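This part of the workshop introduces the protein records we will be handling. The question running through the whole workshop is how a given chain folds. To make this concrete, we reproduce a full record directly below:
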Amino acid sequence: MCRHLAYVGEPVALGVVLSDPPHGLLRQSWAPRWQRYGTVNADGFGVGWYAAGDPVPARYRRSGPIWSDLSFADLARVVRSGALLAAVRDATLPGADGEAAAAPFAAGPWLFSHNGAVPGWPDSLAKVAAGLPSAELLALEARTDSALLWALVLHRLRAGDEPGPALAGAVRAAAGAVPEARLNLLLCDGRSVWATAWGDTLWYRSDAAGRGTVVASEPYDDDPGWREAPDRTLLTATPAEVFLSPIEEPSP
């Protein structure tokens, strides 16, 4: 399992949403409060953020735990952004992919993360993967279920799907092959956030003045404004608003 978070709104230092809160992503790496599967998220971490005037995000990823990276502590203190996506990783299976397996994954303006697991990987998703062009399979950044899910989403985006349907379609495809899969996906383009709640917790909070919205695996503080998205839900967030819609179950 993993913990992840996305923010869109007025520019803030990365640490304001990642490390400063009492139960922020930094603390969730060793003491998550709502995590149902796994206990410690120490198998890598990453953050992607957008700079003013540049639609392509920057990324900082490492294969070790976030708490041991003092360079990231400095970066989070001084770098400011109006949109970011970050994750701490608990590997489902042992592997040698290292930093490449740490979210966020990226292409063009997109940042992506997966919180969950696909039991039986990789055999369980072999038929789903066979529907992708071979060049896209060869371009997988890591040999993980999360990387394949990102390939499924990206393929739909490049085919012209809107972000919400692209996420929901990838979830239905994976869940149709592996009904017990946990598929909380997170996608950002620097202006909006899209997320799915499928098998694990998803929370959100919008500032009352419309200054920003956070979407996260779990609340990073005890503010009463946090709301939990129901399971089987697609969430779309802007700095001022959050919209929820149900995701249809995959066909038998």
